[in-house]
Specification:
Layout: E1 10-11, E2 17-20, E3 27-32, H1 39-46, E4 57-59, E5 65-67, E6 73-75, H2 81-84, E7 87-92, H3 104-120, E8 125-127, H4 132-137, E9 144-148, H5 160-178, H6 210-222, H7 241-253, H8 264-272
Helix pairs in contact: 3-5
The structure holds zinc ion.
Length: 274
Amino acid sequence: MIADSKLVDVVIPSPNHSGKRIYPLSRISVHCVVGQTSAESLGYLFAEPGIEASSNYGVGFDGKIGQYLPESYRSWCTSSYDNDNRAITIEVASDTFDPYRVNDAAYKALIKLLVDICRRNGKKKLLWFGDKTKTLNYKPKSDELVMTVHRWFATKACPGDYLYSLHGTIAAEVTKQLGGAAVSTSTAKVTKTADLKFNYLAMKGYVNVPSQVKMLQRLLRDIQYKGKDGKELTINSKFDADTDYAVRAFQKKNGLTADGIVGPATWKLLTGAK
Ligand SMILES: [Zn+2]
């Protein structure tokens, strides 16, 4: 898989998709991850067939961009056949709690990515109507993309109130930057592909992968990392405060960034630890 955009830092192909989209590209759906994850961690998660979820792009907490499916593919992201067959989907790292704030670095990278997607696909305007019926009834012109949100298609907070309230600003900023700009094509190369050895990732905020959190807790307990309360970790398959504490302690001890995010480096050390 070749990155569609020069802005992509990491390419980690996901098996979770329906092949090429059956409708022309006319929408953009921005999501919140519910976890301050890296683009890499999100890619490893979507590389798991069992997760049955994916997105075309992911923006990490640090503004790094991952691509998991070609832009021409239908991702499994917005709980809607109709939407995902028309939309490029982008997951953005966010807090795990309301309003699911995203870092400035991630926000800036999102704007850049949106401008780039529009340019390469011959789009001059990004539109936000803020209303489901109006949006779904609108027929975008060939040089327009219209923004849709996950909460219209499922009982979810996604993209979170923080990003949701910024949708008008995002659309205006992207359209402004597109003004009269030349369309350039990407010559981006694959910068990195997934090493599927590190498939099993436990990630903050992903309560839908309990089996991975369970494995993480077992590993931490086996090597005597305790919870916040100084007691043995409870194997409850939930990325709770005690698990977070143990992960950070493990990272600190091993010279990694103590961010509580289990990425490939942490996982590799953890599975090799005595
Ligand atoms: Zn979503």
